[in-house]
Design brief:
Blueprint lengths: L11 H20 L7 H5 L2 H5 L10 H4 L6
Length: 70
């Protein structure tokens, strides 16, 4: 694994902390079984959004679009 500092001048402690976070994330990703759902998969699932009922237009639909001013 190669890490390159592109901007700034981190102290050795800051660089060690950043490297510890990167290595911990890599170890956690490697520990997941392949095909296991991740948190991002659940958030990007279209059925999560489509499950809610969308209000249909009608005579009173204008009242649902009003956003009161501050």
């Amino acid at each position: 694994m190669t890490i390159k500092v592109v901007r700034g001048n981190p102290t050795p402690e800051e660089l060690a902390a950043a490297l510890a976070v990167v290595r911990a994330r890599a170890a956690a990703a490697a520990a997941l079984p392949s095909g296991a759902p991740t948190v991002t998969d659940a958030w990007s699932d279209p059925s999560r959004i489509a499950a809610r009922r969308v209000p249909q237009p009608g005579p009173a639909s204008w009242s649902r679009t009003y956003w009161p001013g501050a």
